[in-house]
Design goal:
Elements lengths: L2 H14 L17 E3 L5 H14 L5 H27 L2 E2 L4 E6 L2 E7 L4 E2 L3 H27 L3 H22 L5 H14 L10 E4 L4 E4 L23
Antiparallel strand pairs: 1-3, 2-5, 3-4, 6-7
Protein name: Siderophore ferric iron reductase
Pfam family, one: FhuF_C
Length: 235
C-alpha cells in the first residue's frame, strides 16, 4: 500500500468534512453496519431509513427517501472529487466500504490499495464508471424496500455533483469559471447524465462567481427544525 498517497487523501477528505474520515482497517463485510458494492445492503438501508423515520417522524416518506439516498452516496462522490482535484489520483471506488450508525453514514475504508493516475479527463471518466456501478447497486437495494426510481436519483446525483464542483473554487481559487463549467460537462458525461444539468450553474456578475440552482429538493424543510435551503427549487 502506498501509505503516503492514502494518507494525503485521508487528510484532504478530513479538510472537506470531519465526517469524511478514512480508516486504515478494512471493514468487516459481514458487519450489518457496513455498506459496500460487494454485498447486499438491504438490512443496512432499512436500518438507515427506519432511523430517519424515528428521528423525524413528522417529515414523511419523501424526506426519508431523499435523505437516505443522499447519505448513501455522498461519500463516494466526495472522495472521488477530492482524490482527483486535490491528490491527482483515483482510488478503487468499487472497493469502498462505508459505515452506518444511528441514521448517519460517515467513515470509510478501502479493501483495495490500487490508485489510478493520469490526465484529469481520464480520471473523471474512470470515476464515473465506478460511481455508476456503486449508485445503481445502492439504488436497486433501496428500491427493493422503499421505491427509488432512476429518474428520481438522476436529479439528486446531478445536484450533488454540481454543488460539490462549485465548492472547489473555495479551496482552489485559481480554478476559473470556465474550468469549473468544463469539469461539470466532463462529469455529467462520465455519469451518463443529461448535459442540460450544466445549465443549473450560472455566472453571477455581482459576485464574479458561479451560482447553482437546484432542481431537486432535500425536503429538510419538512422536519420540525428544518427550513428551505437558499436555492431550494420549491419557492
Amino acid at each position: 500500500m502506498n501509505q503516503a498517497v492514502f494518507r494525503g487523501l485521508y487528510q484532504q477528505c478530513q479538510q472537506v468534512s470531519p465526517y469524511l474520515k478514512g480508516e486504515w482497517q478494512i471493514m468487516d463485510e459481514q458487519d450489518p453496519s457496513t455498506i459496500s458494492l460487494a454485498r447486499s445492503n438491504l438490512s443496512s438501508i432499512r436500518a438507515l431509513y427506519q432511523s430517519l423515520q424515528q428521528q423525524s417522524p413528522e417529515a414523511g416518506a419523501a424526506y426519508w427517501l431523499t435523505r437516505s439516498w443522499n447519505l448513501l452516496t455522498w461519500q463516494p462522490l466526495y472522495i472521488a472529487i477530492t482524490a482527483i482535484y486535490h491528490c491527482k489520483v483515483l482510488p478503487d471506488l468499487c472497493s469502498l466500504s462505508q459505515t452506518h450508525k444511528n441514521g448517519l453514514i460517515a467513515g470509510f475504508s478501502f479493501s483495495c490499495t490500487r490508485c489510478d493516475t493520469g490526465e484529469n479527463a481520464q480520471l473523471v471518466n474512470r470515476a464515473g464508471e465506478q460511481l455508476r456501478r456503486i449508485f445503481e447497486h445502492l439504488r436497486t437495494d433501496l428500491d427493493r424496500s422503499f421505491r427509488c426510481r432512476p429518474r428520481f436519483v438522476e436529479h439528486l446525483i446531478a445536484d450533488a455533483l454540481l454543488s460539490r464542483l462549485l465548492l472547489l473554487q473555495h479551496s482552489h481559487p485559481e480554478m476559473s469559471v470556465c474550468f469549473i463549467r468544463n469539469q461539470a460537462t466532463l462529469w455529467l458525461n462520465a455519469l451518463n447524465l443529461p448535459q442540460a444539468h450544466v445549465n443549473k450553474i450560472q455566472y453571477s456578475e455581482s459576485t464574479k462567481q458561479l451560482i447553482f440552482n437546484r432542481s431537486s429538493c432535500c425536503c429538510i424543510y419538512k422536519t420540525a427544525a428544518g427550513n428551505k435551503c437558499a436555492n431550494c427549487p420549491r419557492k
